[in-house]
């Protein structure tokens, strides 16, 4: 059984400034991703969105999915979504690579179709990775401390 991974304090500080509904969805979606891929690294950013990126290494280029939190919504994003096999056409978006699933409720992602898509994205990232990583199951904050 995977050990619970705490949310980084700098990320949590910014997360708690969001609506309670978004915080709750984020925490559950994050836990779901970490259940599926417990050894993934979590890269944290605060740019146009507060974002947790899940990667098989310590590099953004090896990421398989992400959770960007905007002002009033969040998504389950797939960094190389246009390259993934998406038989149920779950992914939306118009970018060159990134696709996402809009998240308004836990039922939007806690299902077999999304579970399979996340696993497929992890497998794709492993095959696409240039070299193995020494970082496993780490949280790496790229956020400048707001305190």
Query: What is the number of helical segments per DSSP (H or I, 4+ residues)?
Result: 3
Low-confidence stretches: none
The structural domain count equals 1
Distance between the termini: 34 Å
**Shape label:** globular
Question: Could you provide a short overview of the structure?
Answer:
The protein is an alpha+beta fold and 147 residues long.
Tell me what you see in this structure.
- The structure is a single chain.
- This protein has a six-stranded mixed sheet with strand order 5-4-3-2-1-6.
- 28% of the residues lie in helices and 22% in strands.
- The protein has 147 residues and is an alpha+beta fold.
- It has one domain.
- Strand 1 and strand 2 (50-55) form a beta hairpin.
- The protein contains three helices and six strands.
- The protein has helices at 9-15, 20-36, 112-128; strands spanning 41-46, 50-55, 63-69, 74-78, 99-103, 139-141.
- This is YdhG-like domain-containing protein.
């Amino acid at each position: 059984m995977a050990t619970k991974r705490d949310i980084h304090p700098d990320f949590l500080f910014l997360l708690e400034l969001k609506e309670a509904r978004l915080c709750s969805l984020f925490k559950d979606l994050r836990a779901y991703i970490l259940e599926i891929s417990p050894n993934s690294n979590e890269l944290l950013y605060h740019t146009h969105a507060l974002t947790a990126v899940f990667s098989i290494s310590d590099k953004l280029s090896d990421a398989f999915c992400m959770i960007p939190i905007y002002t009033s919504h969040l998504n389950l994003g797939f960094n190389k979504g246009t390259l993934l096999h998406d038989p149920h056409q779950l992914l939306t978006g118009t970018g060159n690579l990134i696709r996402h699933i809009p998240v308004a409720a836990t039922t939007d992602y806690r299902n077999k179709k999304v579970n399979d898509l996340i696993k497929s994205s992890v497998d794709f990232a492993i095959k696409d990775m240039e070299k193995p990583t020494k970082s496993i199951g780490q949280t790496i904050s790229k956020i400048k401390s707001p305190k």
